[in-house]
Design brief:
about 375 residues, 12 helices, 2 domains, six-stranded parallel beta sheet, single chain
C-alpha cells in the first residue's frame, strides 16, 4: 500500500519523543512491506537533507522559544483566523500544495495525519481518500490541565481558547479518519466516545536497546536524559533539582544529558548538554531517574530507559499508559519516596535486568503486529 505520512518535522534525525514515536510508526509500516512517503518540515538549523522516502516541505522554527518574531505572527493569525496556536505554527499553503501533488502522483494512497496539529491538511484530502489519524496525546486535555496554573487572566484565556480549538480539531480528524491509532487505553476510550469509527492502541516500543553488558563500572550513579527546553520536561527537572537532590547523599554522581538543563541544574548535579549516544550514556549510569510531573501520552524516554536493563526510578506521570512494568522499575511520586528509591537502587545496582530487555523486545513485537494487522484492516475496508 502507498502511504503518505504527514507529520510536523521530518523524524529521521529525531530529537524529541514525538519525533521518535513517529519514526517508530514509519519503520513498522515499511517493515510490513508498505511504501511510505514522509512529508514534514525541517528546523532552520538542521544541517542535513531529507533521508530516503522523506520530502521537506520547508524550513521553519518548530519550538516557540526559538521562533523569534514568527511566534507573534502565528498568534495573530491564530486569533484572527480562529485556529489553535499549536496548529497555526505548522499551517502553510506550501504543505497543502505538496500533499495535493503527492495525491495526484499516488492517487490510491492512505493519508496519515500524524499529530492533531496537522489537521489543516484535511482541507486538501479528497473525500474518497482514506485517512489514518495517529493521536500521540489528547491535546485538549494537556491544555485544560494548564488552565488553573495560568499566571494571569489573559494567559488563562489563551490556554482555555487553545484547549477548545485543538479539541475541536482532534474531533474533526478523528471523525473523518477511517482509523484512529492511540498510545494508551485512556486515549482509546476518549476517541471512541468522541464518535470515531475504529480506534486501536499501538503500544510504541523502545527505540534503543541496551547491550546486555553487566559491567558494574559506572560513570555516574544517577542519570537523567531529555529535551529540557520543553516546558513539561523542565518542570520535572526543576522538581528533581529542588526537592530530590537535597535528599540524596552528597557523594552521588548525578548527570543530566540533553539540551536546556544548563539553566536548571546546579552542583552537585552535572549538566552534560547534548550527548551523541544516548544508550552509552544511560548504560553508564547505575540508576536512571525520570522525574516527570507534567505532559501527556507515553514517554519514549521511559521505554528507552527500561530497555537498557538498568534500574529505573520514575513518577507515575513518566509511567502513564505503560502497563505491567518489569521489576527493575520503581514508581515514586513524593520527594521522599523518589529519593529513597534512588538510594535503594544505587545499593543494589550491578546486574542488567534480563526481564527488562525481554519485556522491551516483546513490546516491540506486539507493536509491529498491531501495525500490520491494522493496515490490513484498512486495505480490506477499501476493497
Amino acid at each position: 500500500m502507498n502511504i503518505v505520512f504527514c507529520t510536523t518535522v521530518l523524524p529521521s534525525r529525531k530529537r524529541t519523543g514525538g519525533e521518535i514515536a513517529s519514526q517508530s510508526f514509519i519503520d513498522a509500516m515499511r517493515v510490513a512491506g508498505h511504501s511510505v512517503t514522509v512529508l514534514g518540515y525541517q528546523r532552520p538549523d538542521d544541517d542535513y537533507g531529507p533521508s530516503g522516502g522523506e520530502v521537506c516541505v520547508g524550513r521553519r522554527p518548530i519550538e516557540t522559544d526559538g521562533a523569534g518574531l514568527s511566534k507573534y505572527l502565528w498568534m495573530l493569525e491564530a486569533i484572527t483566523r480562529g485556529r489553535a496556536y499549536s496548529a497555526q505554527k505548522y499551517h502553510s499553503a506550501s504543505y497543502q500544495h505538496l500533499l495535493s501533488s503527492e495525491l495526484v502522483r499516488q492517487p490510491q494512497s492512505l493519508v496519515v495525519i500524524d499529530h492533531a496539529q496537522m489537521g489543516f491538511l484535511l482541507d486538501v484530502v479528497p473525500s474518497e481518500c482514506p485517512v489514518l489519524f495517529i493521536a500521540h496525546n489528547i491535546e485538549e486535555d494537556i491544555y485544560r490541565a494548564q488552565i488553573d496554573a495560568a499566571s494571569n487572566p489573559f494567559t488563562r484565556w489563551l490556554v482555555t481558547r487553545e484547549a477548545k480549538l485543538i479539541g475541536l480539531l482532534e474531533r474533526r480528524i478523528g471523525r473523518r479518519a477511517l482509523c484512529v491509532w492511540v498510545l494508551t487505553e485512556a486515549d482509546r476510550a476518549h476517541f471512541a466516545n468522541s464518535g470515531c469509527r475504529h480506534v486501536s492502541i499501538a503500544e510504541i516500543p523502545a527505540t534503543r536497546f541496551g547491550s546486555g553488558n553487566a559491567d558494574c563500572h559506572y560513570d555516574y550513579d544517577v542519570g537523567l536524559i531529555g529535551t529540557w527546553s520543553w516546558r513539561a520536561n523542565a518542570e520535572g527537572l526543576e522538581w528533581f533539582q529542588r526537592e530530590i537532590v537535597p535528599r540524596l547523599p552528597r557523594n552521588l554522581r548525578i548527570a543530566v544529558a540533553g539540551k536546556g538543563a544548563e539553566s536548571i541544574v546546579r552542583p552537585p548535579v552535572k549538566a552534560l548538554g547534548f550527548v551523541s549516544d544516548a544508550v552509552t550514556f544511560l548504560e553508564g549510569c547505575a540508576v536512571i531517574a525520570i522525574p516527570s510531573t507534567a505532559g501527556g501520552g507515553i514517554q519514549v524516554k521511559t521505554l528507552d530507559a527500561i530497555a537498557t536493563g538498568r534500574p529505573v526510578v520514575a513518577t507515575q506521570t513518566a509511567l502513564r499508559g505503560i502497563d505491567r512494568v518489569p521489576g527493575s522499575v520503581c514508581s515514586a511520586d513524593t520527594a521522599d519516596a523518589f529519593a529513597s528509591a534512588i538510594e535503594r537502587a544505587c545499593r543494589t545496582a550491578g546486574n542488567v535486568a534480563n526481564e527488562s530487555l525481554e519485556w522491551s523486545r516483546a513490546r516491540g513485537a506486539r507493536f509491529r503486529n498491531v501495525i500490520e494487522t491494522e493496515i490490513s484492516y484498512i486495505e480490506n475496508r477499501l476493497t
